[in-house]
Structure formats: C-alpha cells, structure tokens
Amino acid sequence: MSEQEIKVPDLGGADEVEIIEIIASAGDSVEEEDPILTVESDKASVELPAPFKGKITRITVKVGDKVSEGDVVGMMEVSGDAGGSEEAADEEPEEPKAEEKSEAKSEESKPAPKKKSGGSRKETVKVPNLDGFDNVPVIEINVSEGDTIDADDPLVTVESDKATMEVPSPYAGKVEKILVKEGDKLSEGDDLLEMTIVEEGGEEEEAPSEPAKEEKAESKPAEQSKQEAAPQPQGSTYEPPSPGAKVHAGPAVRKLARELGADLTRVKGSGPKGRIVKDDVQAYVKGQLQQAQQGGGVATGSGIPGVKLPDFSQFGEVERESMSRMMAATATNMQRSWLNVPHVTQFDEADITEMESFRKAQKAAGEKKGVKMTPLPFLLKACAAALAELPQFNVSLDMERKEVVRKKYIHIGIAVDTPHGLMVPVIRDVDQKGLWELAAESAELAQKARDKQLKPAEMQGACFTITSLGGIGGTAFTPIVNTPEVAILGVSKAAMKPVWDGNEFQPRLMLPLSLSYDHRAVNGADAARFTNTLTQLLGDIRTLLL
Ligand code: CAO
Q: Is the model's pLDDT at 506 over the cut of 80?
C-alpha cells in the first residue's frame, strides 16, 4: 500500500484549465480511469481520470481552481505495486499529446477547405479527428436541413466516455442533408452532412472540387486549418436550461441523467456558467419524485409549468389572506380531477311543466311536514333511476390495476354552496327513498354543510353528484367530475320556452341539464342515453314509479 499523487495529465495542449466539478471525494474507492474531477478549457470539458485503482485520501483542489499539466489535485492510496513507481504514475493517462492530435486533424480527417472565386458547390462534411476517440455517439444534432450556417458553427455534439465535444462546421453555407442521427456512433472520416458552400460573389452552381480543394488548402495557414476541424468546446456559450435548449454538462452528468431518465434541458445548473453538476440532476429527480408522491401518484402538476404571479401591487392596492383549509383542499381536488379526467359535457333540456305543477301542489303537505319540496328530490330520484338503467355511469376506474369497479349501491352527492366554500354531502341509497324523505334529508344535509356540522362519513361514498345552480341562474355550465366518480349532473335555472308540439308552440317549463362525464369510462352515446332517460323521467314523473 502506498500513497500516490493524483496529477493533472496532458490536457491536449491546453495550458491552464478550470476545475468545474469535483466528482470523487476523500474515502471513495475508485477504479483506474474513474472520473475524479471535471475541468473545462476554452475548447472542451474533460473528466480527469483516476491514474490508479485505489482509495482517494485527499482532494487538494476546489471548484474554480485553475490547474495545468502536472499539478497535484489530490492523493490516493494504491494497493500493491500498482502506481508504486514513478514510471507507472507517469504512464497515465494515455491521452494523445496535443501536437499529435493537431497533426492528425489537419492531415487526415479535416476535409481540406476548398476555394474558388464565385459559384457554389456541394460538399460532404466528414467527421474530424475526435481527440483520438472513435465510435463516439452523437448526443445532439445542432443544425437542421435548410439552415444557413457560418464556419465553426457547431454541427453535432458527440460524447465519448471522457469528454463532450461539438463538431464545428469547416465551411459557411447551407445544410442540405444530415447524414447522421442521434445515437449514431461516429469515427473520424465518417460522412456527417452535405452542404452547399457559396463562395463570395459566387452563384449557385456545381463546380469541380479537386483543384479548388488544393488551392484553398494551400492558401490557408496551417494552424487555422487545424482549428477549423478541431472539436470545439461544449458549452462555451451558456444558455439557461429550458426544453430544447443546449445543455451545459459533462459526460458523467449526462450519463447519470440518462440512467435516471432525467431530461437535462429541464435541469437548472448550479455550477459555473450554469453548468449542470451531478447534484443538480439528483435534486431534480428527487423533486420530480416528491411532486408525483404528493399528487398521490396522479398527474398533478407533472410537467406543467406553474403560473408565475406578477407583483400585483404595481397595478393597485392589494392585500393577501391565507386560503382556508377547505378552499385549499377544494383547489387540489378540482385540479386533480381536471388533470386526470378527460371531460366531455352533454347538454339537454327536460320539460318539467307537469313536474312543477305537481311539486307546487305539495306545498300545503310540505308545510304540514315541515319540509320544503324543491326540484332537487325529483332530480335525485331521476338520477338514481338513470344510474340503475345505465350502470356504466355507476363505476370508478382503477387505472393502476386496469379494472372497472362496478357499484351495487346508489349514493348521490349534492353540491352545496356555503359561505366557507363548496361542500358535497352524500345521500345514501337514493333509489330506496321516497321524495319526502329525500327532500328532508337533502335540506338537513345542506343545512349541516352551511353550519360546518357535516361528519366525514356524510361526505363519502358518492357514486355520482348533482350540482344545482337552478335556484341562482344560468342556462348551462360544464361541471367538473368529482373523481373517482365518472359523471356529474349540472342543473341550471328552468325557464318557460315555446316548444313545438307538432301543431303549435306550447309554453313549457324547460330545465337545462349539463352532464359532464369521464370519457374513459363512458362514451358519448351512453351520455346522450343518460340525459334522454332523465328528460323522459322528469317529463313524466309517473315513470319514476315504474
Ligand atoms: N330552476 C328554477 N328554479 C329552481 C331550480 C331550477 N333548476 N332549482 C331550485 N329552484 C328554486 C327552488 O324551487 C326554490 O324556489 P322556491 O323557494 O320558489 O320554491 C329556489 O330555487 C331555491 O331552492 P334551493 O336552492 O333552496 O333548494 P334546492 O333544493 O333546489 O337546492 C342546494 C339545494 C343545496 C342544491 C342549493 O341550495 C345549493 O347550494 N345550490 C348551489 C350548488 C352549487 O354551488 N353548485 C356549484 C358547484 S360547482 O362550483
């Protein structure tokens, strides 16, 4: 066992590079070549690998430090002979020397620039030397067919296991055809894309390329030629992360994000120049998981940007007050239902002329009983009958188990408007109760709701909900299904309308109905059948007895 220095290896010609991320810490056991830290030059971000297998004992640098080849960045314990000699230490890493790389680029891989005065020509851009790597996957295509680009504009981003590099365009011109796609593995000399290159003062025409090639190659200073084809820095320009934006992250972070399924364009970088580090990816994934759990596994807020509030005081005087618990709970439930349920609303009208004369005729009887007969008990009774006739409305969906839960009972919730918010007490076994019983029970539950006296059990177990705005007004509305129920009936204010009876218009009292339903559970034809059933039952309440 011996303690060895961890030194900065050859940096491909870069003099001084900045440490932008420390990946390993003291105490970590590492394999040879495991990344220890990430540095960024003005050309590329590169991970510095562990020179030996062993245990890190100390990291002696911090993020932001500038280091050069040979600088010590930490110490590690190395077992056995590995790294025990200076030679062994000096052998690592086996990065090609900067000079070697540059030569390779200029002589072998870089398509020699072509020049001719005037005209245009087609050119196939090839993959340049990739710092000695081959079979490097494309992780991003930075141009689209039809784009007009300048020389040095990034064409694609590739990622080796050591570095992320952008391949720059050797020419200015128009991208005609992209010959690679994300995930393709590229090596030096592979075809990348086809371009039309327009020479200054030139016209769109094909031109012989070979002589022109030589001419331009000769006319360019050697150093400039090298630079044109050299992979350029990833993230030398930083853009704030947003979907579709470029990502500023090193290979290890990209690998981690891929493993965790995190979209890096959505991750906010906390490193220098907004660079995304491992902690950012972990925090992002953790946040997403927490959000999903808080939503009870439903889609609440998932992927949906929140609403940013302006400073309202700039428009006038404002004051803030906390939401009541009930208001906050209602808001959550409404959003949950709205986001989870594909809603459709079916509208219809019931002729309640006869029903209303019958109801009014019960006034004296009601006074005796101390119960007021409103339209609501009739609606409850009609809905119970419709639910019995069309049981596909009396279900809940268990999407996790891909099951439909069919209910053999008919409990109906009634939405009650109270000073402290909307409450939905539930009337049990509506199908087994008479109109007076329903009138008394709904009045009692509505009063309890207004007095905040409802017990939790009195608000649970509904199969369906009625929300009546008939006493207030309106002609129609689109209620939100009270999930996990699959339908809700909205009732608006009845109005006298001229209705054609086949011979003449008759004044009839028409009651507007708005049936919202979960289109996963119920289809449109069934919804029309449901409102048909309701209009028939309410149009002739004797049928409620059948
Ligand atoms: N068309 C015309 N008149 C109607 C009517 C309708 N659809 N529904 C009720 N009315 C009449 C009643 O007959 C009564 O008139 P009279 O006093 O002349 O008889 C008057 O309107 C008031 O009725 P009500 O509201 O006291 O009784 P109800 O049984 O119809 O309703 C309840 C009870 C609890 C549903 C109701 O009080 C209520 O709170 N409604 C609001 C529900 C709500 O806010 N829904 C929205 C949910 S989504 O935000």
A: yes
Domain ranges of the chain: 2-114, 117-199, 231-247+262-294, 327-545
Average pLDDT of 82-104?
Answer: 39
Of the ranges 305-319, 370-384, 451-465, which one carries the lowest mean pLDDT score? 305-319
The Cα–Cα gap between 524 and 21 comes to 57
CATH pick for 327-545 out of 1.20.140.10, 3.40.50.10490, 3.30.559.10, 3.40.80.10: 3.30.559.10
450 lines ligand 1 (CB under 6 A): no
Which residue from 343, 357, 360, 374 has its CB within 8 A of the most atoms of ligand 1, so it is best to mutate? 374
> What phi, psi does 477 have (nearest 5°)?
-160, 175
- Report which residue type is found at 290: Q
- Greatest extent of the chain over all pairs of C-alpha atoms, in Å: 111
Is there a cis peptide before residue 93, judged by omega within 30 degrees of 0?
yes
Residue 227 burial by CB count (10 A; 0-12/13-18/19+): exposed, middle or buried? middle
Q: Just give the CATH number of 2-114.
A: 2.40.50.100
Catalytic annotation present for 411: no
Of ligand 1's listed atoms, the one at least distance from the Cα of 377 is 29
How far does the centroid of ligand 1 lie from the alpha carbon of residue 161, in Å?
69
Tokens linked to 484:
């996990």
φ/ψ (deg, to 5) at 426? -120, 130
Answer left, alpha or beta for residue 22, where phi above 0 means left and psi between -120 and 50 means alpha: beta
How is residue 232 annotated by DSSP? B
Q: For the residues of 265-293, what is the DSSP string, one character each?
A: GGSPP-SGGG-B-HHHHHHHHHHHHHHHH
382-399 pLDDT, tens digit each: 999 999 999 999 999 999
117-199: CATH number: 2.40.50.100
State the average pLDDT for the chain: 82
**Residue to mutate (ligand 1; options 468, 516, 534; most atoms within 8 A of CB):** 468
Structure tokens at 241: 């992360």
Residue with tokens 């939790």: 456
Q: pLDDT value at position 199? A: 67
12 CB-near residues (< 8 Å, 6+ apart):
41, 43, 44, 46, 95, 96, 97, 98, 101, 131
Question: Contact 482/425 with Cβ under 8 angstroms?
Answer: no
471 alpha carbon – ligand 1 mean position (Å): 4
Position 273 scores a pLDDT of 66
* Residue with CA closest to ligand 1 atom 46: 467
Nearest CA to ligand 1 atom 23: 471
- How do 426-427 and 464-468 pair as beta strands? unpaired
Task: Give 468's contacts (C-beta < 8 A, 6+ positions apart).
Answer: 375, 376, 379, 414, 415, 490, 491
pTM for this entry: 0.54
Tell me, in angstroms, the distance from the centre of ligand 1 to residue 14's CA. 79
Distance 468 CA to ligand 1 centre (A): 6
The pLDDT tens digits for 191-207 are 999 999 876 544 433 33
Q: Which residue's CA is minimally distant from atom 7 of ligand 1?
A: 470
